[in-house]
């Protein structure tokens, strides 16, 4: 009964672990055999009988009967007089099977045996967990916030697995509290020692792609293909889509009536602005579409250098560049071309200079403030009204005046 009681106490691990009864019994046998090797030097002459249905086991030691005084290996041989204490009619040369009780292994051995079992079960769980989540890399996963740390949010799934959402993998305006359900994509599984660490991301382009698959049936069914996704998490994203069926409008299907289909995705991403565009192999047309909502007049491509000069009317420039330069940056990432904006009608102003040329005299963040509203050359800034620039940027009047003086000195000097 001691063996049965011990196994039943060990079986408590099964309830909280991803381990079936048969596997548990196999681990048990391995652990017991290790204990027998330490106690007796070998486990070759032991039979361990495990009943996975009842959860019980027996250990039997097999020895050969030899004459008294001729025992050379006490583990595999037993003297005739000792054998007859077990069964009075034993004779020399016969096999004796004797049940081993747990207490015979000693208290320290039993404690070590239990610790070894725990270690083996954890090792089994970690191996299974690693394989399970390796197969889920790139898939959407939902888990609950367990606790919030400064550098990461620790999540727990329904099976008690811990998932880490690092700060840098969170959308900038994400805010989570204990008990919230968080959706993201499994980005990686790393082994920290013997324990797998599961990393979730909400900033990866794959997360947006998987949300499209989840929310838009035509994408899930393969009728619409997502060619590429680029993102500035929490700010803006561009998704190029294509359909091999001319009857399907891929952009319309993804956006839905009045944005009904894409609204849920936008909300999940913290109101990230999403442009869905039709993919095309025509590079000029692709770049034109990628710069939406700006209306492009013409595109000149240098295929070797992978650059594109895009001509736009003055009023379209700020749309093409976008807030903080995000629109043109994403268009470049989407198409694979470095895009330069050329203002129509500015050809006669050959002495105009890009603001970036003044980076030694004007701080980068100030230049970025002008670029956010589509002003990226000296003359484009000088044409503006100071009061209007104060209203449209986060710059003080004094700063704007200093910048204008620097620009005037350069152009008029």
UniProtKB/TrEMBL annotation:
Localisation: Cytoplasm
SUPFAM superfamilies: Nucleic acid-binding proteins, Prokaryotic type KH domain (KH-domain type II), Transcription factor NusA, N-terminal domain
GO cellular component, one term: cytosol
GO molecular function, one term: RNA binding
UniProt domain S1 motif: residue ranges: 136-203
Domain of life: Bacteria
Statement: the UniProt record of this protein carries the keyword Transcription: yes
Keywords per UniProt: Cytoplasm, RNA-binding, Transcription, Transcription antitermination, Transcription regulation, Transcription termination
InterPro entries from the UniProt entry: KH_dom, KH_dom-like_a/b, KH_NusA_2nd, KH_sf_prok-type, NA-bd_OB-fold, NusA_N_sf, S1_domain, TF_NusA
All copies of domain K Homology, residue ranges: 233-306, 307-391
Listed GO biological process terms: DNA-templated transcription termination; transcription antitermination
Complex and partners: Monomer. Binds directly to the core enzyme of the DNA-dependent RNA polymerase and to nascent RNA.
Known role: Participates in both transcription termination and antitermination.
Sequence similarity: Belongs to the NusA family.
NCBIfam families for the chain: NusA
Protein name, as recorded: Transcription termination/antitermination protein NusA
Species classification: Bacteria, Pseudomonadati, Bacteroidota, Flavobacteriia, Flavobacteriales
Gene: nusA
């Amino acid at each position: 009964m001691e063996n049965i009681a011990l196994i039943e106490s060990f079986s408590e691990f099964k309830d909280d672990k991803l381990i079936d009864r048969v596997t548990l019994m196999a681990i048990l046998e391995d652990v017991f055999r290790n204990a027998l090797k330490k106690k007796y030097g070998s486990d070759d002459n032991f039979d361990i009988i495990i009943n996975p249905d009842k959860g019980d086991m027996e250990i039997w030691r097999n020895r050969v009967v030899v004459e008294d005084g001729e025992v050379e290996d006490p583990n595999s041989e037993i003297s005739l007089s000792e054998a007859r204490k077990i069964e009075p009619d034993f004779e020399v040369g016969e096999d004796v099977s004797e049940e081993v009780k747990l207490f015979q292994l000693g208290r320290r051995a039993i404690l070590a045996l239990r610790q070894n079992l725990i270690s083996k079960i954890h090792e089994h769980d970690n191996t299974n967990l690693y394989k399970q989540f390796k197969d889920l890399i790139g898939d959407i996963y939902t888990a609950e916030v367990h606790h919030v740390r400064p550098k990461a949010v620790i999540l727990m799934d329904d099976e008690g697995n811990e998932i880490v959402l690092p700060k840098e993998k969170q959308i900038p305006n994400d805010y989570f509290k204990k008990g919230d359900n968080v959706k993201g994509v499994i980005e990686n599984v790393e082994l920290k020692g013997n324990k797998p660490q599961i990393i979730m991301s909400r900033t990866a382009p794959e997360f947006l792609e998987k949300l499209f698959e989840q929310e838009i049936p035509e994408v899930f069914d393969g009728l619409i293909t997502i060619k590429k996704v680029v993102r500035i998490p929490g700010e803006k994203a561009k998704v190029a889509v294509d359909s091999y069926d001319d009857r399907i409008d891929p952009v319309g299907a993804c956006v839905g009536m009045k944005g009904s289909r894409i609204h849920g995705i936008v909300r999940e991403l913290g109101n990230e602005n999403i442009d869905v565009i039709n993919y095309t192999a025509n590079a000029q047309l692709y770049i034109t579409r990628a710069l939406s909502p700006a209306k492009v007049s013409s595109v000149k491509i240098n295929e070797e250098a992978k650059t594109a000069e895009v001509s736009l009317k003055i009023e379209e420039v700020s749309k093409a560049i976008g807030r903080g330069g995000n629109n043109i940056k994403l268009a470049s990432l989407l198409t694979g071309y470095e895009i330069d904006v050329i203002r129509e009608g500015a050809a006669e102003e050959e002495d105009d200079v890009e603001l970036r040329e003044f980076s030694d005299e004007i701080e980068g963040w100030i230049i970025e403030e002008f670029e956010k509203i589509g002003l990226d050359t000296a003359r484009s800034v000088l044409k503006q009204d100071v009061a209007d620039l104060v209203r449209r940027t986060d710059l003080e009047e004094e700063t704007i005046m200093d910048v204008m003086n620097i620009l005037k000195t350069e152009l008029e000097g």
